[in-house]
Write a structure and sequence with these properties.
Layout (H helix, E strand, L loop, with lengths): L2 H20 L15 H5 L11 H12 L21 H13 L10 H17 L7 E5 L2 H16 L4 H4 L7 E6 L4 H9 L7 E4 L9 H13 L3 E8 L11 H10 L3 E5 L24 E4 L1 H4 L7 E5 L2 H8 L30 H35 L4 E8 L2 E6 L4 H18 L5 E5 L2 E7 L7 H14 L4
Parallel strand pairs: 2-3, 2-4, 4-5, 5-6
Antiparallel strand pairs: 1-7, 6-7, 8-9, 9-11, 10-11
Length: about 475
């Protein structure tokens, strides 16, 4: 592909991308409607021997791949959490892609490192975080929690885990909410500590971790000779958007010399708004904190802001310095390869820079506030609709509801049947969870192009599919 052909095809792609994002996606089914095997059956068993023209590739993308895509940028996408794309972020990704930078060392692209440092400082200012924090951009919150678990393990074993392994080390305990994200369990297992070291702390009526239960579990472990190593709290749980009380949890973590990590993967973006920062009260007691600008803030996936109080603990846990990675600048610059799992790193800071500058603080705040307000209006409408129950009120922009029934089991069955019907319909896309043993449907308002009309039209469609007038 020469320069002229590249430019021709690139222009065709950009034209398609603009039409897709601003217009066409709205008329597509939100969740892919294909059956298992649909895409795989259309792809040849073997790679082509001869080169193919780009037009053929692009046609196959539209004919084969597009039908098998669930459209996360659809304004009626209300499942999981958003994975927002914004035009300035897309343009930044195009520039990042063509440069193909590996941002592992300052030397391999000084601008990548120094822009990342600047963006983490910007985020601290946007969210009123103390300047005591240092920051790095990880790929996902799962990686951030894994790095934190490793740091906690090393601190609890006096840095012997990395040196001699875990065979002769004392048993450790890792505490988190029963509502916490599954990445916590995965991180503990990947760190070689075993599922048996995880403690799921009970939650209260608001699904927040109970400090009193945590204290009891720590006391029980100490009596058994098990060392409390880490506490992971959540601000904005995946199930219902609940938030753990950071202030008392921080006191408990400090008094027991535990590493304290706070996961605010989804809800953290909303801390740009001062009125929501009460959820972060007590964050200064934490050792690390992470949230995903790639969820609600409009920065293309993947981009996780990972803050640490003591960067030396993280770097001591993860640093390996072979001769081929030593550089002249050495300790005078930041080498982010020491801050995460991967050696090779994408340049993620450029899209964050483009998004924040393109929308400004006020633009981002307006979006978050609008989504929260729409969710509150929807909750009121659900509450007033016969045949439905509002199970959890909005936590920021996430709520849950279910179908009513003559019994709880009947309600569960009706709720599951409705969810299947809704998602098969294609008008919207919702996901499920369980609240106090009962099946519920999650509804999270967060897609950048979603309007109040999109939300209310979706509710009307749900009621219609449920068989109500």
């Amino acid at each position: 592909m020469n320069k002229d052909i590249f430019k021709k095809n690139a222009h065709a792609l950009v034209d398609w991308m603009a039409d897709y994002y601003f217009d066409d996606v709205k008329s597509m089914p939100v969740r892919s409607q294909v059956k298992p095997g649909y895409v795989r059956d259309k792809i040849p068993l073997n790679a082509p021997v001869d080169a193919e023209e780009f037009e053929a590739l692009f046609d196959d993308f539209k004919d084969i791949i597009l039908p098998g895509m669930t459209h996360w940028q659809h304004p009626r996408f209300f499942a999981y959490f958003p994975a927002n794309v914004s035009p300035p972020s897309v343009l930044a990704e195009m520039l990042t892609s063509i440069m193909g930078t590996n941002a592992m060392l300052w030397e391999t692209s000084p601008a990548a490192t120094e822009l990342e440092e600047a963006m983490m400082d910007w985020l601290k200012g946007l969210m009123a975080l103390s300047q005591n924090w240092s920051g790095v951009i990880q790929d996902t919150a799962s990686s951030a929690v894994f790095c934190s678990v490793l740091a906690a393990r090393e601190r609890a074993t006096n840095w012997l885990g990395n040196e001699t392994g875990l065979k002769d080390q004392k048993a450790l305990a890792f505490y988190t909410s029963a509502e916490a994200h599954s990445s916590v369990e995965k991180a503990v297992k990947m760190a070689g500590l075993g599922r048996a070291s995880i403690r799921l702390v009970p939650t209260d009526d608001d699904f927040a971790m109970k400090p009193s239960a945590l204290i009891s579990m720590i006391d029980d472990d100490r009596k058994k000779g098990i060392e409390p190593a880490m506490l992971v709290a959540t601000v904005g749980t995946t199930g219902v958007g609940a938030s753990d009380p950071l202030e008392p949890l921080g006191v408990i973590a400090r008094s027991n010399n535990m590493y304290f990590h706070v996961d605010a993967a989804w809800a953290g973006s909303a801390m740009v708004c001062p009125e929501y920062r009460y959820l972060m009260r007590g964050i200064e007691s934490a050792d690390s904190y992470a949230f995903n600008p790639h969820k609600w803030m409009g920065v293309n996936f993947d981009c996780t802001a990972h803050f640490v109080k003591d960067a030396d603990t993280l770097k001591r846990t993860l640093t390996i310095l072979p001769e081929y990675l030593k550089t002249r600048e050495g300790n005078n610059v930041t080498d982010y390869r020491d801050w995460g799992i991967q050696l090779g790193r994408r340049m993620r800071a450029l899209k964050l820079w483009f998004v924040i500058r393109s929308y400004g603080v006020e633009g981002l705040q307006s979006m978050f506030r609008q989504h929260v307000e729409i969710a509150e209006d929807l909750a009121e409408k659900i509450f007033m609709t016969d045949g439905f129950e509002l199970v959890t009120k909005p936590n920021l922009s996430l709520l849950t509801f279910r179908k009513s029934g003559n019994s709880e089991i009947e309600g569960d069955q009706a709720t599951e049947a409705l969810l299947t019907k809704v998602n098969d319909d294609g008008f919207t896309y919702l996901t499920r969870t369980v609240v106090k043993g009962r099946s519920v449907i999650r509804f999270q308002v967060g897609q950048m192009n979603t309007t109040r009309d999109d939300v209310m039209a979706t509710w009307d469609r749900i009621v219609e599919l449920a068989g109500y007038p």
